[in-house]
Amino acid sequence: MSSLLEIHCLKTYYFTEMGTIKAVNNVSITLDKGECLGLAGESGCGKSTLALSVLRLIKPPGRIIDGRIIFNGIDLLSLKPEDMRKIRWHKISMVFQGSMNALNPVHTIRDQIVEAIITHTNYSRGEAERKAASLLNLVELDSSILKRYPHELSGGMRQRALIAMALACDPEILIADEPTTALDVVTQARILMLLKDLQRQYGLSIVIISHDLSILAQICDKIAIMYAGKIVECASVETIYEKPAHPYTRALINAFPSVRGPKRPLSILRGEPPNLISLPPGCPFHPRCSLAHEICYEVEPEIIQLSQGHYVTCHLYK
Amino acid sequence: MLKVVHLSKFFALRRTLIQYLKGEKPKYIRAVDDVSFEIKKGETVGLVGESGSGKTTLARLILRLLEPTSGEIFFEGQNILSLKGKDVKEIRRKMQMVFQDPYSALNPRLTIQKIIEEPLVVHGLYSPKERVEIIKGMLKSVGLNPPELFLNKYPHELSGGQRQRVVICRALILNPSFIVMDEPVSLLDATVRTQILDLVLKLKEEFNLTYLFITHDLALARYICNRLLVMYRGKIVETGETEQIISEPFHPYTKMLMLAVPVPNPFIKISLPPKIDKLADAFIYQGCRFYPRCPDATHLCQTEEPPLVEIDGRAVSCWKYK
To answer: At what angle do helices B112-122 and B160-172 cross, to 10 degrees?
Structure first.
């Protein structure tokens, strides 16, 4: 499996009046071709900022200050703006958080998809219309929705329309940020299955960002757990579930109740997610960690490889 | 403690001028349609349904934030719909609510102390000095300790979890016996969610409370509720003990939900029945509400509405069960 996307030691900070927010703080991760990677973590952990950094969509006061993002052998951070534009939407595409509610309410779906296609390609209007129809087919939407307005569609249909738009230029990577929030259970299941089909049938590489480990367990091959701007653990989805190494990973997995199997108690993790402006010294998780010892308060842990493909950032495993 | 009898709430859709002149009758959305159930003291009953099922409307009806189209609501034996004036106020002391968004539930211009004090002031209870002590005690009970740290803060200075604790604190300050919670944790982070759920369970023991817990998340409902009411498009389609329903769902909709709810286990994959969406007019209320999506539907289901029948201490509304 070759790496399609390699992120090395990425740092994206927001320089605000109140202080520097270390939103992405030395993150390294790879995405293989045809792989589905899940970025898991709670609000403020940096997962959305990481995705936006890959597409170089970080606006001031945010700035990528260090690291490399290698896509197909090229460091995206070294590209000129006009060359980066050829990557966005064409090679790497994104469905943003909450975007299903951001569709233009006064334009039909046809207009919005066709406009997206024309903006990014050299297609004529006719070719773009045909492409739009085939994209809708891809996401299992009936072409009759083309003439509808966003408010006439259900949440699930809008989300599919957005996925269709994101695939307009046949990208190699699709990043989906919280693709199923605000959708009901059955619709959510259908969207997840759609993404899995796209991965399997078209070899699409996918990055899914979510706070919900349950949905990531359904379709991801690999999961990276983020906390306070760092990846604290990364492994195959089976390993994360069966052999979670980092105390935060364990707490997070046990924070999701299950409808299957016997009823088990949920583990309660005390404390609050950290303030990214004033992070404590040492490991950012130590204030909430039941296994923390002296070194955790002073020294930041390094990445340790536990086994093939299983990495953890924790002093317990030195 | 709470008894709801044949409760309905229909919302009329506005007609256009032409429709009005033609004498066309308005179409109605039957948000809550002939719902009956009981909640006994000490229970935590879960009301589970998707958006559009009517669960929030039902919550509002119970709290008398909306007036029903028909039906009755009895609270502690009293018909609360016939109450007026200060009797309603009395009921409001005993019935409280915790809703989804902890930010919009708190007045951003009041300090935490003032927010929690408000219900006490409205009901004319205690002297100002006594109130402060009571508030401090209650802040401790909801885990905001030391209380002095929070009294003079404003909502925007607190985290989501802390705000929801304030909302719960305010709901408890009048010593209610019954609390309606509508998606109280769905906007919170996963680890904060478990803290709040744990708090809610502890408070139930400490203050002898009865809960109606409304959510779309079946997994969450399983964790906290002893009994479930499953709602679909305004009707209750299944009721029963939580573990009974989870281990053996009767209604096709409940079955569909059970298969579609994701589990934090990569070895258990969700599955869905093939997509069935028979054409159905949203405003024709005939037959079973679930007919358009039901994989087991028969012709009877299209024309006749199935009654809620009791089987072994559970109930289901489906022609497969007679």
So the answer is: 20
